[in-house]
Amino acid sequence: MREGEGSMSRRGRYTIEATPLPTGAPCVTLSAMATQRAGVPALDATPWAPPAAVGVVMKPFRSRAATDALARALECELRRWGVVYELVRTRGPGDATDLARRFLTDGADALVAVGGDGTVAEVLSALVGTGVPLGIVPRGTGNQLAMNLGIPK
Asked: Cα 108–115–110 angle (5° rounding)?
């Protein structure tokens, strides 16, 4: 894991486990990725204020290149919004719950689960009763929850 100045905090520190972007490299943002898919509106179309600190729990895909590409896109989008964040990849069952609890302890204002129904369920189990919002980036095989909620894949 490559560390910035330390763990996530409201003082602008972050940690991310993704390939860092070279200086001046163009960002392919989540909005751009969304508009590339037919019929999916760009994220910029939804008016909302981003949270100050976000914890991102990502289950790696079979393809490391695909995992790294999405991690870079998330990093670009969060930086564009000026959000303090930490992105951590799970390593096995139960990791998502443990990581989500750690993010909550560290003061995250919102969490994002990147993965399938299992990853989302693990993160949700840590969020029960907290009032902390959850973002879902559906990347699993079935994504039944995301489909039921109308979240595009």
From this structure: 15
